[in-house]
Amino acid sequence: MNTEIIDEAIEKYVHERMTAGRKRATERFLSYAYLKQGKDGVSEFLQKVRGLSNYYIDFLRVMSNPFKGPELAWLASMITIAVYAVILMGFEEDRTVGIFLFAGTLVNGWSLIRTIARKWCDIGVMIAIYLEIAQLAEHELEQMN
Q1: pTM of the prediction?
Q2: Transmembrane segments in this chain: where (predicted)?
Q3: How many domains in the chain?
Q4: For residue 57, what are the domain limits?
Q5: What is the pLDDT of residues 57-89, one digit of tens each?
């Protein structure tokens, strides 16, 4: 079975879940599964959906640490620039440059905090949706047997 079809079904569920709600997304997902695979292939399809959803959940849990991506490099460069700005503020002739650098570092720090918060929220929502998909597939498999 092609994983592109499974990815497409999961992506459609996620999109539908975010726009129309759980009930409608569930109905559309199941109808897509039965139409695309037929009655004979639905069991295998749902098993693979469950497995792929669990893989995505594990992957997102690993990636939920915001300092595993570019944010760590961004934080390190901001700290370096902030230290340099404080040193510049100690010299009378470079005080203005130090103030501007420090202000820019504060603005970028706020932006980093917002980015991290948004990333945590998005990852949390995606984990919950993938968990719903895995539970839905499990429930349908139990009903089939």
Answers
A1: 0.75
A2: 72-91, 97-117
A3: 1
A4: 3-144
A5: 998 888 777 677 788 888 889 999 999 999 999
